[in-house]
Amino acid sequence: MCGIVAYIGKNKAKDLLLDGLKSLEYRGYDSAGIAVLDDSKIELIKSAGKIAKLEQKIAELRSPALVADSASSEFNSMLAERLSKAFETSSCGIGHTRWATHGIASDGNAHPHQDLEADIALVHNGIIKNYLSLKHELEQDGIEFRTETDTEVIAHLFSRARQQTESDLDALRQVMAKVEGSYALAILVKDQQKIILAKNQSPLVIGIGDGEHFVASDSSTVLQYTNKVLKLKDLQVAEVTAGQVKLEDINGNESKIEVCHSVQNNSILEKGPYKHFLVKEINEQPAVTSLMLDQCLANPAKPISGFEQLDIDFSQINRIVFVACGSAYHAALIGKYLIELWAKVPVEVAIASEYASKQVLVGESDLVLGISQSGETADTLAAVTNAKQAGAKVMAITNKSDSAIYDLVSPNAYVTPAGIEVSVASTKAFTSQVLSLYFLAIKIAEDRLNADLTEVKQALRSLPLVIDQVIERAEQYQNQFLKYSNYRDFLFLSRGVNYPIALEGALKLKELSYIHATGYPSGEMKHGPIAILDQNVPVLSIAIDGPTKFEHGIYERSLSNAEEARARKSPSLVIACDDNNDLDGVFDEIIRIPNIDQLLSPIIATIPLQFLAYYIAEDLGKDVDQPRNLAKSVTVE
Ligand code: M6R
Q1: Which candidate, 573, 614, 569, places its Cα nearest to that of 590?
Q2: Do the domains 472-637 and 3-264 match in fold?
Q3: Whose CA is closest to 185, among 153, 209, 163?
Q4: Atom 14 of ligand 1, nearest CA residue
Q5: Distance separating alpha carbons of residues 489 and 519, to the nearest angstrom
Q6: At 190, phi and psi to the nearest 5?
Q7: Using CA atoms, how far apart are residues 413 and 306, in angstroms rounded to an integer?
Q8: Residue 426 CB less than 6 A away from ligand 1
Q9: How distant, in Å, are the alpha carbons of 88, 375, 398, 620 from that of 413?
Q10: Is the CB of 373 under 6 A from ligand 1?
């Protein structure tokens, strides 16, 4: 979490820093700040709230209103003028957008942080695990802390180390020897035209320009300016000037500078005709699905393609373990259902944070597969690393080829072509993960059992059209859902392959509207959750009929469970196919989707639930694209 940027060169740093921070806002958006080098001093400004608020604060420095207001305080007006001049002229600076880990989102806790003498300013992404003991030591030495952050210890430690060493990189290494945890650091030093960097377990890249350098947590930020990117490795430090990068390892040895040439990305992501990125991304699902089908399933009569890059012999795999978080975990549960059904391989699904640090009993015939849209989720990375170290084969499904998980499992990654997902709540990335798991399950079944799944493959080809038809019903769904905006608790129920969609529906509603919602397997309701039911708790069931006797049983039993909820006076909603005409009188609200085979229905059934969360959040006036407390990329464990 948190995004950091830095710039040194010939252009105005402030503008580049703010633009960079905006492109990193997906990593956290509860406060932001920048610092620039002005002649001999470091000038900084920070603010709780989003980057727009910081921008406004900077603009106000020049506003006559502020100067007039502060006429009584000559000091304030001089300070505003000094800061304003520094921001207009400096070509060297650092910036930060925060997702609070230690200390509330406030102006004071926002980065950059400084030492007591204001000789340095630094921004940090990561967590210093032993900050409390370091803080106590520093306090005993008379240092008064001004923030509640873990980061402030680094500012004081670095400042002290500088007094005892000749070189700033040596001083930084001394700090690195003391701190435990993860960090990407960018540091400004008074009087010196340079930026100092360090990295451990948090991403940090340098974009190499012509007489200028751009630093960021994510290459997509620097790719707006240059296609030459240098990725720092763990425990490397760097000193960056306008014309040069000096890179060293933890022992002080010079490291080789390996610059990769990436495709430059000058495109600015736009909402187009949509009010929010979320609804834009919901609407992109037919196109993404279509693209994936063309890539992997162009001819249903042929074996599935798109996995040629993998160095895995599925006939040698005896067990698969999925590790993932949030929506990706829900996708994994669907993957388990499909792989066990078609490929007959036992599959476990683990919450990545639970799998990350336990003793895992895996060997070379086990495949541990991490699913992560961002490819940067710390818990998922830790879980895959744990499995890799224990001897398992590892693989990933990710939406970003330029990500840590891709590098970790290379070449065993399948990259979903969902495109950049801006909205924090996952929609198109989730459905693309689910579809990739259909492909993977078919691939494993074909490789291991020589299974003929032509019929399933043909049916999958109809998905883009059906998704389109669901999206066309958005207005009808809106009318149905808005009646439920004022409830405070929701229960989502389903069985079998759609049980994970009940979990996903509940997660979406929770994160977008802040309404408490829980997903359960329908059959589990009577074992406890039923106690909370009354007229104030709507129950939404996903009940899709199946063509076989076994699957039909799932539908019937889902209906009886919904009846049980209704008997407790709960308002009852159901997602059901057009042809199911035995539902009137059983449910208060029937949310119709086009007829679809039960086995293929998760992707279709999830779309009305995306709309449910969207319309209710909009109705309640919530921040749809950037819900409170969340971040798109969760890079701390
Ligand atoms: O980038 P990842 O797929 O690893 O992210 C995992 C979760 O943080 C993510 O799915 C989260 O739950 C979303 N906000 C759900 O909408």
Answers
A1: 573
A2: no
A3: 153
A4: 425
A5: 11
A6: -50, 140
A7: 11
A8: yes
A9: 45, 10, 7, 40
A10: yes
Is 632 assigned a catalytic role? yes
Q: Which residues are paired to 368 by β-bridges?
A: 321, 394
Say yes or no: CB of residue 634 within 6 Å of ligand 1: yes
Any atom of ligand 1 within 6 Å of the Cβ of 627: no
**What's the mean pLDDT in 172-190?**
97
Contact criterion met (CB below 8 Å) for 12 and 88: yes
Q: Give burial (CB, 10 Å; 0-12/13-18/19+) of 346.
A: exposed
Cβ 519 vs Cβ 542: under 8 Å: no
Q: What is the pLDDT of residue 263?
A: 72
Place of tokens 């063509």: 547
Contacts of 380 (CB under 8 A, 6+ apart): 323, 324, 325, 328, 352, 370, 371, 372, 405
Per-residue confidence band for 469, with pLDDT thresholds at 50, 70 and 90:
very high
Q: How far apart are CA 246 and CA 473, in angstroms?
A: 57
Residue 329 Cα to ligand 1 middle (Å): 8
- Side-chain-side CA neighbours of residue 409 (13 Å): 36
Asked whether the beta carbons of 327 and 430 are under 8 A apart, the reply is yes
Which residue among the candidates 14, 199, 280, 632 is catalytic per the annotation? 632
Average pLDDT over residues 152-164: 97
CATH architecture for segment(s) 3-264: 4-Layer Sandwich (3.60)
How do residues 409-420 score in pLDDT, each as one tens digit?
999 999 999 998
Name the strand (E) or helix (H) holding 376: none
Q: Ligand 1 pocket check: which of 218, 373, 381, 503 to mutate, most ligand atoms within 8 Å of Cβ?
A: 373
Letter for the amino acid at 50?
Answer: K
User: Which tokens in the block code for residue 314?
Assistant: 């599925």
pLDDT over 90 at 397, yes or no:
yes
Is the shortest distance between the CB of 283 and ligand 1 below 6 Å? Answer: no
Could you identify the atom of ligand 1 that is nearest to the CA of residue 377?
A: 4
CA distance 69 to 2: 34
Confidence of residue 565 (pLDDT cuts 50, 70, 90): confident
Q: Which region, left, alpha or beta, applies to residue 181 given φ > 0 means left and ψ of -120 to 50 means alpha? A: left
* Distance between start and end Cα atoms, the chain: 10
Q: From CA 3, how far away is CA 221, in angstroms rounded?
A: 10
What is the token pair recorded at 240?
A: 């960056």
- Domain coordinates in residue numbering, the chain: 3-264, 269-461, 472-637
Reported in sequence order, the residue ranges of 409-515 that DSSP labels E, i.e. its strands, are 413-415, 489-494
Cα(489)–Cα(523) distance, integer angstroms: 19
Element (H, E) at 387: helix 378-389
Nearest to 423, CA basis, from 636, 630, 127: 630
CA dist., res. 147 & res. 593, Å (int): 52
Q: Can you list the alpha helix ranges (DSSP code H) found in 482-548?
A: 499-513
CATH number of the 269-461 domain: 3.40.50.10490
Tell me if the domain spanning 472-637 has CATH number 3.40.50.10490.
Answer: yes
From the alpha carbon of 326, which atom of ligand 1 is closest?
12
Question: Rounded to whole angstroms, how far apart are CA atoms 301 and 304?
Answer: 9
Q: Does the pLDDT value for residue 64 go beyond 80?
A: no
pTM summary value = 0.88
With the CA atoms of 102, 103, 106 and 111 taken in that order, what torsion angle do they form, in degrees rounded to the nearest 10? Answer: -30
Angle at 328 between CA 326 and CA 333, to 5 degrees: 100
Residue nearest to atom 11 of ligand 1 (CA): 326
